[in-house]
Amino acid sequence: MWSCESRHFLTWYAKARGYTAGMKRKLAASVLTYFVFALWACRAQEANHITVVGRDVAVWRPSGTAPANGHPLILFSHGFGGCNTQSVFLMQALANAGYLVLAPNHRDVRCGSARHKGDGMHKPEAPFRDAQKWSDATYRDRRDDMEAVLNSVLAAKAFEGIPVDASRVGIAGHSLGGYTVLGLAGGWASWKDPRIKAALALSPHCSPFVAKGDLGTMDVPVMYQGGRRDLGESPLVRKPGGAYDKTTKPKFYVEFEGAGHFAWTNLNRRYQTSIDAYGVAFFDAYLRGETERLSQLMGSGRPNDVSDLRAAR
Predict the structure, then answer these.
(1) How far apart are the first and last CA of the chain?
(2) Structurally, how many domains does the chain consist of?
């Protein structure tokens, strides 16, 4: 399972993000542990796919009877070199909770249904460790992918026979997908889409927004999730003056004890139940007005697998 391709990806990923030698060793150890789940992950990547405005979109259909105004909609953006089926467990949990979930593949896709179609590892558009070289032009194609899918679905008022409530739209994303999500929520003012009512940012690449973005004017509910062993991104969320501090209320931060950067993918099952619980409760609160479960989770103290828990409403 730990193939030459896997080692190549790890080496490329660490180099692309500018990891130090120590950070690379810790990343390698955590990824090696996660690869014991690789066969399960490959099976879990199976999902329904449909082409929407020229983009490959993975689809998870909502459970239950549609509300009078239609089902709430969530769009998911995958990580750098990931794919639209990299986080099936969370997509399925949201669908089971009654959400229509759509996830487009972006240009940098490297797994799932597109793993044999790529043209090699993509060099980042800007260095991950140099926030000053990022702007609202960086990875704008990801913003365009999300907007194209959203526009198509809302224009039809339904998707594949599923009625959609245009007033209840949320977005979620991991890593570079988290960057995409924060940008659409208003982290880049030029990207902001007022139709988006809640944003779930999972170990997001947020340094460009901390350095020069518009987190302080987003006015969209945001939940950040991070990991204590997520060395490249979570420290920039939790540090004083970091993404969490700069973000407008209501905002939340959940950090999982021992979780690394890939905890939000199919490769690691350890945190999935908790990731699902906090994520679903967040969207229930801000897309459905059902606040009780989120209040319970945020107000009952930290469970054993959570190292940091913050809320500001």
Answers:
(1) 45
(2) 1
Rounded Cα distance, 45 and 28, in Å: 23
Cα separation of 175 and 178, whole Å?
A: 5
CATH code, domain with 259: 3.40.50.1820
For residue 28 the two structure tokens come to 């390698």
Reported as a single tens digit per residue, the pLDDT across 274-303 is: 999 999 999 999 999 999 999 999 998 899
Phi, psi (rounded to 5 degrees) for 134: -95, 150
**pLDDT at residue 242 is higher than 70:** yes
Report the distance separating Cα 28 and Cα 78, nearest Å.
21
Structure confidence by residue, pLDDT tens digits, 159-183: 999 999 999 999 999 999 999 999 9
**Of 171, 158, 156, residue with least CA distance to 70:** 158
- Is 204 among the domain residues? yes
| Strand pairing report for 306-312 and 251-256 | antiparallel
Q: Which domain holds residue 258?
A: 48-116+143-312
Q: Please count the other Cβ atoms lying within 10 Å of the Cβ belonging to residue 115.
A: 13
What's the gap between Cα 4 and its chain centre? 27
* Reported pTM: 0.88
**Mind spelling out the 3-state secondary structure of the chain?**
CCCHHHHHHHHHHHHHCCCCHHHHHHHHHHHHHHHHHHHHHHHHCCCEEEEECCEEEEEECCCCCCCCCCEEEEEEECCCCCCCCCCHHHHHHHHHCCCEEEEECCCCCCCHHHCCCCCCCCCCCCCCCCHHHCCCCCCHHHHHHHHHHHHHHHHHCEECCEEEEEEEEEEEEECHHHHHHHHHHHHCHHHCCCCEEEEEEECCCCHHHHHHCCHHHCCCCEEEEEECCCCCCHHHHHCCCCHHHHCCCCEEEEEECCCCHHHHCCCCCCCHHHHHHHHHHHHHHHHCCCCHHHHHHHHCCCCCCEEEEEEEC
